[in-house]
Automatic annotation (TrEMBL):
InterPro entries: FAD/NAD-bd_sf, OSGIN1/2. GO terms for molecular function: growth factor activity. GO terms for biological process: negative regulation of cell growth. It comes from Irena cyanogastra (Philippine fairy-bluebird). This is OSGI2 inhibitor.
Length: 541
């Protein structure tokens, strides 16, 4: 194809070399980029798939789209006899080519997405019952199943794992963090890394993911230091009378500006953004895609209390900021305690971090210590002793146990933060309505995080289970078809991982399976349609 738009020379993205195979019928030696001034109607290459996010979700999806296919191993016997019988019925087919709804039927697990439960039980049979059975799958690389795609991420492959606090162990076992085709334990052994327990540090996982992309030959699909600014739908006029504008694409912005529109057909996606070059400059780009997969995770925007004074510089919202304050000695010798708000694992990490650095802690959270929804209630004591240490302090060192605050740690269950004051004081309110003022050295608000989908129309509020509300992992994940992971409210837009409620790596892999199967079916139908049209033309005298 001849590019009519001006291409920016010297851009890092232009080094993207990709063999698109038969689906596009030629080799592409240049990344389809345009200057931001080029109109979207210009003739440019359209990629079948653009994946936004290069964490484990994006990596796993790239692995499957690259042609890797899972088959039932010759001698494998799944411990679930009903599932094993189903697998035997189509042993000659890869799991991607089988009916996922049929295979998922009747399975139960710790994900609300049936394909996630299916893929997890194939990779880690009966893991929730404490068994360490090997996977019943083996993998084959089938080049003819390659679907052209590109994975865009802000940092190196591994996503947010590269920026997590390095001193804390992961909540999941190392085996559960691994991706298909590369054993984490074998990788660790080959790198002579001393893994002392089944749980590992985030930096180990981040290194594993980065290596995975390389060893699996996926690098050509990945681009780092990329920031997305806009993902919008292009439309095409459906003009029965024909005319000069019949095939002209119209962007959403143009669509909103024009009145009295003719009937329009939704077409491809326009993905705009910039890549940060080594000199710090921003290089703009624009891509066109038939399908977009959202794999951004939920670490973009820390949760906020939305109270007065939360924007003061001594109110922090991340473990990294807290760690930096400790390493710089800002809290050394402070008489006032650190105020930690939240009752999740990140808040517990902060308590441990402060405790280990001899920094006194005041711990504030809304729930009762006996609330069964607290994450600590779901963690076995033997596997997670450090978190149960925190939970024990939450229960036994409450401000109600002793009128005087404990020197090292004091908890305030069933309390809300009303405001932060400039003199580094905090106003708390108990469940009974009583107010209390506490002085602190620094406040750390750790109440979860939310995805930042600002690049979508209305920030993606229209694609959640609850329309016109922000997307959140627990309360309002993106609404998807349970077997294809396609957004129910927006065709050709897919989502996986925490965006659809799968926080754990072991479950997000199911999203990659569902999307890969859906796109494989559509690609096959597209090829069949093209072949039938070509055959029809050949038959015309």
């Amino acid at each position: 194809r001849t590019y009519s738009g001006t291409e920016t020379e010297g851009q890092l993205l232009n080094s993207f070399l990709q063999y698109f195979g038969d689906s596009l019928g030629r080799k592409i030696k240049r990344m389809p980029l345009i200057e931001e001034t080029v109109l979207p109607g210009d003739s440019l290459l359209t990629l079948p798939v653009v994946i936004i996010g290069n964490g484990p979700s994006g990596i796993c999806l790239s692995y499957l789209l690259s042609g890797y296919r899972p088959y039932l191993s010759p001698e494998a016997i799944h411990p679930n006899p009903i599932l094993h019988t189903k697998l035997e019925e189509a042993r000659h087919l890869s799991i991607v080519d089988q009916d996922l709804e049929y295979l998922s039927e009747g399975l139960e697990g710790r994900s609300s997405n049936p394909v996630a439960v299916l893929f997890d039980t194939l990779l880690h049979p009966d893991a929730d019952f404490g068994y360490d059975y090997p996977s019943v799958l083996h993998w084959k690389l089938e080049q003819h199943n390659y679907i052209p795609h590109i994975v865009l991420g802000k940092g190196p492959p591994g996503g947010a794992w590269h920026s997590m606090e390095g001193s804390m162990l992961t909540i999941s076992f190392g085996d559960w963090m691994e991706l298909p085709g590369l054993s984490f334990k074998e990788w660790a052994a080959s790198k002579r890394r001393n893994i002392k327990s089944d749980r590992v540090m985030p930096e180990e996982i981040a290194c594993y993911y980065k290596h995975y992309v390389k060893v699996m030959g996926l690098q050509k699909n990945f681009r780092d230091n990329v920031y997305i600014t806009s993902v919008s739908r292009l439309y095409r006029e459906n003009d029965d009378e024909g005319g000069s504008h019949q095939n002209e694409d119209i962007s959403t912005e143009h669509l909103e500006m024009e009145d009295g529109q003719k009937s329009l057909i939704k077409r491809n996606w326009e993905v705009r953004g910039y890549q940060r070059a080594t000199d710090g400059s921003h290089v703009p780009f624009c891509l066109f895609a038939e399908n977009v997969a959202l794999a951004t995770g939920t670490f973009d925007s820390p949760g906020r209390l939305q109270v007065e004074g939360e924007d003061f510089p001594f109110v922090l919202h991340s473990m990294s900021d807290f760690g930096a304050a400790i390493s710089k000695g800002k809290l050394r010798g402070k008489a006032d305690p650190v105020l930690i708000v939240g009752a999740g694992l990140t808040a517990a990490d902060a308590v441990l971090c402060a405790y280990n650095n001899n920094i006194p802690v005041v711990h504030v959270f809304r729930r009762r210590v006996t609330d069964m929804s607290l994450i600590f209630q779901q963690l076995p004591k033997k596997l997670y002793p450090e978190y149960h240490k925190v939970y024990h302090m939450m229960c036994t060192q409450s401000h109600t146990v002793d009128s005087n605050q404990h020197s090292a740690y004091t908890s305030f269950p069933e309390h809300n933060v009303l405001s932060f004051k400039p003199e580094m004081k905090c106003v708390l309110q108990s469940a009974s309505g009583l107010k209390k003022i506490l002085k602190f050295s620094v406040a750390l608000v750790l109440i979860g995080s939310h995805p930042n989908l600002f690049f979508l129309k209305d920030q993606g509020h229209s694609i959640g289970h609850h329309s016109n509300q922000p997307i959140t992992c627990k309360g309002n994940p993106i609404e998807i078809d349970p077997y294809t992971y396609e957004c129910t409210k927006e065709a050709n837009l897919f989502a996986l991982g925490p965006l659809v409620g799968d926080n754990f790596v072991r479950f997000l892999k199911g999203g990659a399976l569902g999307i890969a199967r859906c796109l494989a079916i559509r690609q096959k139908k597209k090829h069949e349609l093209i072949e039938s049209e070509d055959g029809g033309c050949d038959g015309v005298p």
